[in-house]
Design brief:
Helices cover about 30% and strands about 35% of the residues. The protein has three helices and six strands; from the N terminus they run αββαββββα. Strand 3 and strand 4 form a beta hairpin.
């Protein structure tokens, strides 16, 4: 009985994953986007058992100093909140659009600055819809645009 339940859950998870990948393949295309601004903030987080506590959003330099030197914040992990605004040419209508993504880490572990170009997935049907590339896109090389974008 238990094995059947675990099998049903595994099939459900696999089906959801397959649907997400199919949606990405059918409805999105990799394009290059040009960064217009990057706003990076950090917060500190500590989990003890079932309880976790976090700080407010602060400049990253300040969180590093507090986590290293202040007795109250020692032992806290530093987490990033990165908001990237970018411009791109939408494959849906061929016009320029702006969008933003919130990330926990920089793509490819390299900081981005205004004017840099980075790959995103743009919707083929909705001009204002974008999504970040995930680990599978990068692993399979699906994050590289096949033809011109910004």
């Amino acid at each position: 009985m238990r094995l059947g339940l675990y099998g049903m859950i595994a099939i459900g998870v696999a089906g959801l994953y397959a649907y997400i990948e199919l949606d990405k393949r059918v409805n999105f295309r990799p394009i290059d986007a040009r960064v217009s601004s990057v706003k990076e903030q950090c917060y500190m987080e500590k989990t003890e058992g079932n309880r976790s506590s976090t700080s407010d959003l602060l400049p990253c330099e300040l969180t590093e100093l507090l986590a290293r030197n202040h007795p109250k914040w020692q032992g806290y992990d530093i987490k990033h909140k990165i908001e990237i605004r970018f411009a791109y040419i939408s494959p849906a209508d061929g016009a320029a659009h702006e969008s933003n993504l919130q990330l926990a880490a920089y793509p490819y572990d390299r900081p981005l600055h205004a004017g840099d170009i980075f790959p995103v997935q743009a919707s083929l049907k909705e001009a204002n819809r974008t999504r970040a590339n995930d680990w599978l896109d990068r692993r399979l090389g699906r994050d590289a645009p096949s033809h011109g974008s910004i």
